[in-house]
Amino acid sequence: MLQDKMTPLERMTAYNKGEPIDRLPCNPNIANGAARVIGCKISEFKGNGKLIAKAQIGAYRKFGYDGVRIFTDLYVQAEAMGAKVYYPVDDTANLETPPINDVSEIDKLQPADPYKDGHLPAHLEAAKILIEEVGQEVSCSGGIVGPFTNAFFLIGIEKMTKLIIKNPQAVHKLCEVSLETCIRYADAYIKIGLTPTISEPMSSTTMISPKQFREFSLPYLKRLIDFIHLKGKGVTLHICGKTENIWVDMVAAGANCLSIDNVASLSKCKNKVGDQVRIMGNVDPSGVMYDGTIEDVRNATIECVKQAYDNPKGYIICSGCSLPINTPFANIQAMMDTAREIGYPVNIDELW
Amino acid sequence: MAQDKEQLFRYLSDAVVEMEEDKTVAISNSIIEENIDAYEAIEKGLSDGMNRAGQLYEEEEYFIPELLICADAMYAGLDILKLHLKVKGAGTKNKVVIGVVEGDTHDIGKNLVRIMLETSGFEVFDLGRDIPPRDFVEKAKEVGAKIILLSTLMTTTMEGMKEVLSILKKENLRDQIKVMVGGGPISKGFADRIGADGYAANASDAAKLALQLVAGGVA
What is the ipTM of this complex? Predict the structure, then answer.
């Protein structure tokens, strides 16, 4: 089996400078599946920073991928603002009840204090352990749910969706208070030494129109990214689903790296905005990584590399979204092995 | 008079497409006052409007927010008109059972499919979310459903879809009840592998496929 010759941090630093590297950076994007690596139940992550860190570090050490992230589910920020979250014993959490049910209650919402509210302190504890144990060898990031998406969880997904048409002012108010939570959470991560990454699934044009994205999501996203830049960190922005018609806006928001879904095209993305941003993606996390064979994973990984290895601002091999929790280890390993097999510089003619 | 009637249906359809709930209610009321057939008004007005909204969604003119508001308008009109349905219209609709499989509580996608199925003339029995496999089959038997539609967003609950199919097989119902699957992690390949009759990537395709399946089933 091929071994890496550089640590992930050495590799990323060299790649950023255009210096020689042993292989392209690769991040299969394990989320709660890290629980499988250490053999705990996903619900045990709830409020347990030590265990979250142990699982993420364990998964990183097992596969040797190029980025470790603290991220459990989409609802930690909303929970810290008063939402009730349902925790299945061994599956990813889901929203149970939002903190408010009606527009008239928006003024009751308070931005979360990441050092006090909900399970945010546990996530920050995990972040500290991550930096202490692996911060010298791999880039560590803290997952943040973007202001627009988090706003859906404050009043309920269906209600918020309708407010976009019926009460734009209310949507803006929700996004404003949501943004403040995002900024405080990002700040707390940065103070520990992590780089925030933003997930904004509701901003997908599978959900809303490009025009609605520009009106309701982009302004808040941009303010969050501006804040992170001000603190000296770059930003990876992931939006699930279709995004082609908002790539230009995602770049305008200030993203340094776009992580795109497998329903979007890496080559189109490269041609459209690759001279301005790094791109990561987009092996199908469900059809290939979870449900495919090792050979499927290898083929899909090579196909992604073929499409984007020459992206002017760089390319990171990745899944199109967080991996399903029961993704076979063999498939995760296969993505890493394929990246090692391809090596660097990429010789496109030798890929088959 | 006939022209007036057609025109009212057109207005009703337009009100749904244009997301005008109050207007939809007002026109529905005048249809009742003028003694126009409620069944026809639902078909040519409300359903037509929702179909057009679905078309606009496919063309990426409309997105989920527009679709949900159109559906609100449609349902507001339906609440008025259905009270005046003559009995003959009832009982002729094809019945389907829909729900999110056990272990999953994400239901926006399922709700959109329900809306489009109702728009396409199905009588829909919506079991809701987090539904055990056995319940789908029992409900389908009880109401005489032609199709069971299963939705999930989670890979961890995809197994529940297989279970519904194996219960149907065990009870020798597989020939009478078609099964459609959909949701984020589901693919055509998965649907074929578990032996489902159909997969659709979005709500309007799901409704079209359901129509094809019942048409095929009759022949």
Answer: 0.92
